[in-house]
Predict the structure.
Amino acid sequence: MKIMNVEFVISAVRPDQYPEDALPEFALAGRSNVGKSSLINKMIMRKGLARTSAQPGKTQQLNYYRVNGRVYLVDFPGYGYAKVSKVQRQQFGTMIETFLGDRKPLRMVLLIVDIRHAPSKDDILMYDWLKHYEIPVCVVTTKADKIPKSQWPKHVKMIKQELGFHPEDRHVLFSSETGLGREELWDLINEVIEETNEEQEETEEVSIE
């Protein structure tokens, strides 16, 4: 996908701060330091727009990035970082649950998992939560460049087994270093947007009739 325009729009913590233009939204969830910001920077081909940090837990709001004026990537706070206070963890949890529970423009959650490691308890909880509330999810196994290509299938199989991965869900292998998976992920996002547009058009036609 050719990136024509990208803008950081807002760091939101409350629903009244969310954008109101109803563009489709794709949220990125994952543990602290799993590489969500690096993934966003690779997706939009902009170095440093999504701020990366060696210090986990830096993202503490919902960061909105508008791409080509047609879609938002929404970066969630990372979860599972021990040095974040209990109060902050509760605040993050409430903020994310509020967003996921009633955000109509949300089209899919990209659950980011480090391919080198088994999913954390928080990863499994997030996946189970998304399935329970029937929120579309794509598991993105990132940092693929950190292990030999020959080990990819074994690690992906392990991650899917630990998550209890559902066959109808999507998976993308990704590397922020090499760009592996970038076009596949954009193709998926565009596919979901087109499917949603078609469903909305059908609903409108039925309403008119």
